[in-house]
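Today's session is about reading a structure prediction critically. Students often jump straight to the picture, but the first step is always the sequence itself: look for stretches that repeat, for charged clusters, for runs of hydrophobic residues. Only then move on to the predicted structure, which in these notes is written as discrete structure tokens rather than atom positions. Here is the chain we will use throughout the hour.
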Amino acid sequence: MTSAEVTNVEEMFVQVARGSSNSKSELTLNGVSPSTLYFSDRPERVVGHMTTEDFVGQWAIGDNSFAADPPNAVLSFLQSGDDSPEDCVVVLKNPMVEGDSIHYSIEVLEGSVPPLSGACTLFIDPLGRPLSPASMAGMRRRDRRRRI
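Below is the predicted structure for this chain, in token form.
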């Protein structure tokens, strides 16, 4: 790669929690891991983690921030007594860390968010790229469009 070439790395983010709760338009991940994982796909494969507080602290930084263009996310969760994961697609806004919980204002795009869930994982799309090849929510939307 020459110095004139620029590589854009689109990182997806993953948050894991012991459970979730939902009240109207707020999603809370309870017992959330103190680390938010991130990764990217080709050509630059990047994997790492940052504190969940740092993730929230960077939410509004830059012109192309999550505050300016809220990300889509897939919440994959287990219901009590059920071993089959379910999922829903949401838009995330206004994160707030409180102890070992993180709260998001949400808009539901697909599926339904349970009032309470067991173990869950939140897959957050890259900055400003809701239909990127690595986008979990984008893949679900593209697949749904192909069936129509």
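Discussion point for the tutorial: Residues 59 and 66 are 5 Å apart (CA to CA).
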